[in-house]
């Protein structure tokens, strides 16, 4: 007969730690290190996209299947909350099938153990399988499916699971599997294997991959040392969607590669390109992700590291398919910018490169093989990439034959004078052209989202057919009393075009400029006409004769297609979040035979960043046509106070009281017009007689802000991003394009932070600044254009170091111990609205579409639809509780759509604090505080609820599932203040808890969307 046997199973979620020490570019330095699992953490990877050691090890449920020696199924059972016991002793005394599991929430002890009681007849030769964390939203494995499809052991060995969502992150419910064979059940009721009590070791189906990029210090072959590597974006290609539920060894397969579940391109996907996640130091940046195993067989044997990413060349020299790697092997694509100050290099003095690295994953290194392209389940990989230079890209382009580093491609610019880097708004910079660098064979070259090329030379004239070049304007600088040009003092923009006779002080386009400089060089080279040349008398010791100009760079914005003239309401989707546009002046350019890399030598290069936006830029998303975007960095942070005459006393009282009516939560443009005195308080009538020179002092040196002395305050900072386009000296309505973000727009910057580059985020302090104990250094507070309590001299302030915690100006000053005395702003502009295409007759209350749509439902719940938000800023769908994590993690992103439960549905419970609430949620399979199907919100969800749901929705001090990355839960990194734990809502603000209690929560749930 059958008997109940106590089977004590050690549920060990063991992640074999295979750490790859370094991968230089090029070269390899890798030493595999296998770390035995114990009671202490063995995983060091922790970033926004991946979780910590203990959430990876937890077991929430487990499916047990037992087969006899002939492979026949003799027992299956699914263990979950319905048959879970409180302690191991209860399992031993039970008379039915049950289990116990101990899931710790202590990061220092991540061991998971448990025991299960199952009925099995005494006998020998049993094989026992365990599959844990079913119904995890990530892969399609469930107890129902296993019960229906597994009739024999062979079925389990061939059982394939598929990702439910094409994501490279996980929700804390990691599907695992394990096996114990040779099991003997004796009459005493114990299960044994090989004479010992059996332990079932569970291993995750996922691998964890971590990349570390660092700036090297080793000189390249020419003795040049890299100045900086600035990471751009990363993406993963050929991510498996399928895997076998069991590892290949447990399926009876001894081969190490070529036996994966996925076999065609449809079984793989690519991730979205996203920003880097962590910046531990100024020279180090990181990202990480999860993936199912990929062990595709390579096409042929690679003898060296460089061969791994080599592609077959076509007859035309172009790159074809992979030469060594399997076409379905996984690889990452990383972009970034490399800068070098060249020394003793005839090519020039400044190098800037927009580079791309392709790196195939694999188990390789000193003790491995460059021919191994496998990524194994339950293994943690760390790839450290040291960027020393871009010399290999230069060699490839210059020789057109040598490809030393196939995985590295890019656009390299070497400038003899400078590379002028510009943000997305209007920019004015001075440029210098020395006579010694000018030759008649040089031309110009332009690259934007709409073109890539140089002009045709027809009968000695540049013909710019098909080129987008009208975004740069050049005006000669003035000269000093010695007859030499001012090198750094800018000129004011004028809409009038240059004419040698009638308007020599007008603006030139690039065609006129190149023609002008070449003509002046010819005059300079003629001893009899040198005095007629515009080149000045600068001594050779100071660089020699030169011409200095001011370039007026347009904002990176197009009202119409620059080539066809076509106007489309969503044209902005084609030029926001795009690579920099470039104009190379007096240059020559080479491109590699495979057309993957380009090297351009110029006298001057102008490079401008595109507007970045948190909005969805897919043309297929037709739900909205307008949006807003932002610059990449605040050019004048931490140097100015808020406004002239504004005082904050020791109690945080801001005076004088001056109500400008800038109380718009979303319309930052109207707020700003009121702040600047262009529109009366609470009004919508624009004052057309305000002169630009009231606020602006344009003709100043490059490093001096273009504001007059008495207006150098944050209230007016964004004015410097605009320009007098028609030259009438008055601020016109259509010239107020860049403005101070409103509070909802700043919240949007936080919600979409993963689309925004590091410098543009609300908190962008360097690692050194973050380590400072000076609150005036490590804190970062951003002022919105929205008044706090209808008082514009007391604006709403976001505490960037706390995500989206808010307060007023006085609170920012007082609660930082009066050390925050300078603030920053974020300047934004509308996209696709009518404000930029007409000068009068429009309503100043017009706003662009919001990135979120909120609907109040009849039952008192609220639906938040994030359909307009860029998908890169979102997380996966989950029907379960989010993992307990900090505000920087993916657990703190929003899904495409979620619902806030009606306030009336909240459960009643006794007062509890933040930590106890989250510990209870982590340990229990059901949430004791929320209605069925709902969960605790994360910090971003609570932030959206605060700014888009009326005040009568709120009561008490509801907490979140998000703790603070610099607080007590992370070793008290809150600069000695260990009483800050996690986030909640109180008194109209998102706040950091300091030990308060609550009797209410505001629960949410994801609403699945297939879009």
How would you describe this protein?
The chain has 1011 residues and is mostly beta strands. It folds into five domains: 4-205, Immunoglobulin-like, CATH 2.60.40; 209-413, no CATH class; 415-557 and 575-608, no CATH class; 627-836, no CATH class; 853-1006, no CATH class. It has 13 helices and 55 strands. The strands form 15 sheets. It has a nine-stranded mixed beta sheet with strand order 20-16-25-26-28-37-36-30-31. Strands 2, 5, 6, 9, 11, 12, 13 and 14 form an eight-stranded mixed beta sheet that branches. Strand 12 (191-193) and strand 13 form a beta hairpin. Helix 8 packs antiparallel against helix 13 (939-948). The longest helix is centred in the middle third of the chain and has 16 residues, at 510-525. The chain is globular, with a radius of gyration of 32 Å.
């Amino acid at each position: 007969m059958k008997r109940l046997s106590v089977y004590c199973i050690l549920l060990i979620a063991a992640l074999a730690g295979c750490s790859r020490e370094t991968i230089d570019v090029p070269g390899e330095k890798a030493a595999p290190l296998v770390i035995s699992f114990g009671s202490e953490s063995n995983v060091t990877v922790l970033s926004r996209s991946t979780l910590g050691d203990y959430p990876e090890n937890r077991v929430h449920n487990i499916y047990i299947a037992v087969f006899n020696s002939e492979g026949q199924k003799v027992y299956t059972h699914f263990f979950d909350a319905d048959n879970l016991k409180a302690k191991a002793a209860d399992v031993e005394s039970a008379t039915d099938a049950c289990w116990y599991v101990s899931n710790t929430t202590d990061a220092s002890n991540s061991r998971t153990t448990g025991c299960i009681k199952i009925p099995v007849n005494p006998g020998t030769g049993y094989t026992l399988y365990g599959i844990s964390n079913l119904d995890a939203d990530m892969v399609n494995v469930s107890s129902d499916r296993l019960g229906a499809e597994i009739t024999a052991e062979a079925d389990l060995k061939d059982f394939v699971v598929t990702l439910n969502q094409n994501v490279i992150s996980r929700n804390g419910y990691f599907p695992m599997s394990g096996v114990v064979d040779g099991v003997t059940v004796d009459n005493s009721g114990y299960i044994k294997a090989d004479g010992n009590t059996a332990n079932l070791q569970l291993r995750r189906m996922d691998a964890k991959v971590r990349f570390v990029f660092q700036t090297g210090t080793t000189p390249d072959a020419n003795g040049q040392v890299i100045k900086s590597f600035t990471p751009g974006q990363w993406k993963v290609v050929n991510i498996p969607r399928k895997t076998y539920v069991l590892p290949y060894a447990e399926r009876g397969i001894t081969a190490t590669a070529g036996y994966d579940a996925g076999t065609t391109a449809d079984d793989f996907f690519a991730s979205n390109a996203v920003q880097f996640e962590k910046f531990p130091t100024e020279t180090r940046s990181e990202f990480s992700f999860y993936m199912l195993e990929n062990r595709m067989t390579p096409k042929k044997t690679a003898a060296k590291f460089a061969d791994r990413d080599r592609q077959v060349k076509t007859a035309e020299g172009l790159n074809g398919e992979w030469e060594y790697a399997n076409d379905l092997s996984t690889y990452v694509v990383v972009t970034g910018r490399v800068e070098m100050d060249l020394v003793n290099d005839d090519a020039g003095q400044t190098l800037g490169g927009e580079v791309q690295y392709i790196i195939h994953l694999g188990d390789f290194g000193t003790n491995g093989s460059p021919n191994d392209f496998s990524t194994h389940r339950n293994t943690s990989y760390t790839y450290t990439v040291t960027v020393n230079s871009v010399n290999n890209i230069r060699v490839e382009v210059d020789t057109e034959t040598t490809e030393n580093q196939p995985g590295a491609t890019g656009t390299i610019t070497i400038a003899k004078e400078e590379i002028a880097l510009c943000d997305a708004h209007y920019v004015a910079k001075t440029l210098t052209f020395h006579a010694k660098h000018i030759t008649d064979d040089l031309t110009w070259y332009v690259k934007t989202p709409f073109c890539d090329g140089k002009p045709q030379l027809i009968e000695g004239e540049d013909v710019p057919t098909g080129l987008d070049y009208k975004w740069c304007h050049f005006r000669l600088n003035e000269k000093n009393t010695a007859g030499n040009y001012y090198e750094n003092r800018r000129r004011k923009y004028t809409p009038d075009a240059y004419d040698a006779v009638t308007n020599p002080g007008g603006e030139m386009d690039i065609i006129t400029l190149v023609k002008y400089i070449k003509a002046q060089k010819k005059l300079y080279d003629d001893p009899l006409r040198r005095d007629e040349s515009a080149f000045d008398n600068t001594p050779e010791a100071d660089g020699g004769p030169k011409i200095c100009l001011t370039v007026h760079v347009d904002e990176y914005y197009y009202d119409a297609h620059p080539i066809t003239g076509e106007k489309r309401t969503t044209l902005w989707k084609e030029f926001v979040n795009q690579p920099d546009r470039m104009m190379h002046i007096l240059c020559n350019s080479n491109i590699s035979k495979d057309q993957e890399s380009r090297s351009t030598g110029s006298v001057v290069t102008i490079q401008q960043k595109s507007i970045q936006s948190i909005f969805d830029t897919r043309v297929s998303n037709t739900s909205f046509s307008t949006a807003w975007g932002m610059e990449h960095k605040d050019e004048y942070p931490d140097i100015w106070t808020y406004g002239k005459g504004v005082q904050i006393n020791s109690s945080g009282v801001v005076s004088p009281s001056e109500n400008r009516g800038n109380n718009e939560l979303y319309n930052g443009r109207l707020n700003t017009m009121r702040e600047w005195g262009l529109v009366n308080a609470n009004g919508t009538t624009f004052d057309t007689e305000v002169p630009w020179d009231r606020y602006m002092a344009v003709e100043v040196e490059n490093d001096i802000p273009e504001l007059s002395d008495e207006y150098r305050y944050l209230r007016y900072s964004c004015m410097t991003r605009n320009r007098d386009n028609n030259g009438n000296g008055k601020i016109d309505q259509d010239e107020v394009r860049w403005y101070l973000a409103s509070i909802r727009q700043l919240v949007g910057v936080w919600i979409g932070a993963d689309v925004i580059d590091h410098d543009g985020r609300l908190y962008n302090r360097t690692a050194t600044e973050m380590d400072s104990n000076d609150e005036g250094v490590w804190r970062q507070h951003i002022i919105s254009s929205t008044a706090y309590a209808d008082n514009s001299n007391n604006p709403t302030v976001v505490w960037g170091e706390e995500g989206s915690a808010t307060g007023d100006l006085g609170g920012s000053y007082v609660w930082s111990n009066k050390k925050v005395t300078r603030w920053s702003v974020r300047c934004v502009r509308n996209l696709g609205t009518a404000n930029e295409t007409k000068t009068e007759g429009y309503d100043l209350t017009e706003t662009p579409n919001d990135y979120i749509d909120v609907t109040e439902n009849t039952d008192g719940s609220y639906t938040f639809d994030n359909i307009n938000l860029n998908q890169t800023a979102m997380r996966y769908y989950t029907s379960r509780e989010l993992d307990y994590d900090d505000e920087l993690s993916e657990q703190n992103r929003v899904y495409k759509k979620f619902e806030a439960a009606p306030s009336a549905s909240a459960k009643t419970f006794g007062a509890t604090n933040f930590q106890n609430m989250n510990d209870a949620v982590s340990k229990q399979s059901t949430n004791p505080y929320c209605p069925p199907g709902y969960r605790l919100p994360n910090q971003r969800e609570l932030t959206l609820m605060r700014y888009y749901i009326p005040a009568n929705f709120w009561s008490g001090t509801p907490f979140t599932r998000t703790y603070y990355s610099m607080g007590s839960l992370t070793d008290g990194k809150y600069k000695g203040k260990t009483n800050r734990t996690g986030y909640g809502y109180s008194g109209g603000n998102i706040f950091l808890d300091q030990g308060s209690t609550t009797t209410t929560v505001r629960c949410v749930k994801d609403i699945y969307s297939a879009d």
